[in-house]
Design a protein that fits this description.
Elements (H helix, E strand, L loop, with lengths): L11 E5 L6 H13 L4 E3 L18 H13 L2 E5 L3 H9 L4 E4 L1 H4 L2 H13 L2 H5 L2 E5 L6 H13 L5 E5 L17 H9 L5 E3 L1 H5 L2 H13 L4 E5 L17 H10 L10 H37 L7 H17 L4 H23 L11
Parallel strand pairs: 1-2, 1-8, 2-3, 3-4, 4-5, 5-6, 6-7, 7-8
The chain binds phosphoenolpyruvate and manganese (II) ion.
């Protein structure tokens, strides 16, 4: 698997402009970032834009600028590859770290085509590469794991994931809401896999980069990939989320690194409390389900529908207000109540369906 020590740094930091725009812009950013201690330089050569007409990247000529960055600063270089032509050209240009973007990782055909190219390389060449797979735009953990498995299956061993948040409809604080439970679940399923957070594409705004980066480190992410441009307001893509190299250096140096080794004695006491509270919660939930089943029987006997939207809406609003007053987020309590309600409905339907244990409902 990916060797975090390879880069000598923990957390691993990749930084550079969203897009390579000109040789001067690339070299200026690389020199400034190198001064800030950054060792891996990112720049998009091919840019997947949502609509045509936007800046879609310089393409192949930009690869030689990345080669210059490497020669001049000694930094490793990283770019996105979305199809086999990109990959072949990036390999020929000696790019060290290849990432598969969020739109590509959502497409198993595209990922497999890239994997087939990795599989066709000599083992030495393959071992010299690092591949990072961004989460697919949609919050589908299995699709993300599937893309990682395809790349792993091609023989790539320096493999990592990038969490860049998920597309969502409507207005949000974040450009791509992080839905942290998905990368956390990825870590539970593949504990050896390094996960790098991309606060730039999650936040979409400069001022969110520092807090998101801190949250990621607090959650034990292995690194960060952050967009940086010497003149952010003039950037041809993602202008509002790019930081100057100096601000980026300042943020990276001010991040609190969570202690890996901690005194676990007090933690043990607190965890016991959590275990007990969780037991109580489960007990309460079981009681709630039992009452819900009683209600199910009553509804059945009186020919009432199982789901009554009026009641559900009232219950939701009332609980949300209370939970928010108790310092829980509205999103959390809505998700929680929706899950509890879904399970109550499932139990009521099961108990009352003629195929189920209908006796209990008097059928
Ligand atoms: C990028 O890193 O510049 C990029 C296009 O990211 P994503 O695939 O996450 O949208
Ligand atoms: Mn970008």
């Amino acid at each position: 698997m990916f060797d975090a020590e390879l880069f000598g740094d923990s957390p691993i930091i990749l930084a550079g402009p969203c897009s390579a725009e000109s040789e001067a812009q690339v070299l200026e950013a690389a020199r400034a970032l190198s001064k800030e201690g950054i060792k891996i330089f990112r720049a998009g050569v091919w840019k997947p834009r949502t609509k045509p007409g936007g800046f879609e990247g310089i393409g192949s000529p930009a690869l030689s600028w990345l080669r210059k960055v490497k020669e001049e600063t000694g930094m490793l270089t990283a770019t996105e590859v979305a199809n086999t032509r990109h990959l072949e050209e990036a390999l020929a240009a000696g790019i060290d770290v290849l990432w598969i973007g969020a739109r590509t990782s959502a497409n198993p055909f595209a990922v497999q085509e890239l994997a087939d190219i990795f599989a066709s390389l000599t083992p030495e060449r393959r071992d010299s590469l690092t591949v990072l797979v961004k989460n697919p735009v949609n919050p589908d953990l299995e699709l993300w794991i599937g893309a990682l498995e395809r790349i792993y299956g091609s023989g790539i061993r320096r493999l990592g994931a990038i969490h860049r948040g998920f597309s969502s409809y409507g207005k949000h604080i974040y450009r791509n809401p992080p839905k942290w439970r998905i990368p956390i679940e990825l870590h539970r399923r593949l504990p050896q896999l390094p996960i790098i957070c991309d606060p730039s594409h999650i936040g979409g705004k400069r001022e969110l980069i520092a807090p998101l980066s801190q949250q990621a480190l607090d959650m034990n992410f292995d690194g960060l990939i952050i967009e940086s441009h010497c003149h952010p307001e003039e950037a041809l893509s993602d202008a509002s989320q790019q930081l100057t190299p100096e601000s980026l250096g300042y943020i990276v140096n001010s991040l609190r690194r969570p202690q890996q080794i901690q005194s676990t004695e007090n933690l043990g006491v607190l965890r016991k409390q959590i275990d007990r509270i969780d037991d109580e919660l489960l007990d309460l939930l079981a009681k709630r389900m039992s009452v819900a089943r009683d209600i199910g029987r009553y509804k059945r006997e009186h020919g009432m529908p199982v789901v009554q939207p009026g009641r559900y809406n009232n219950l939701m609003q009332n609980r949300v207000d209370t939970a928010v007053a108790l310092d829980m987020s509205e999103e959390f309590i809505r998700n929680f109540l929706a899950a509890v309600h879904e399970e109550s409905v499932r139990q009521q339907l099961e108990i009352c369906s003629p195929a189920g244990d209908g006796k209990e409902c008097g059928v």
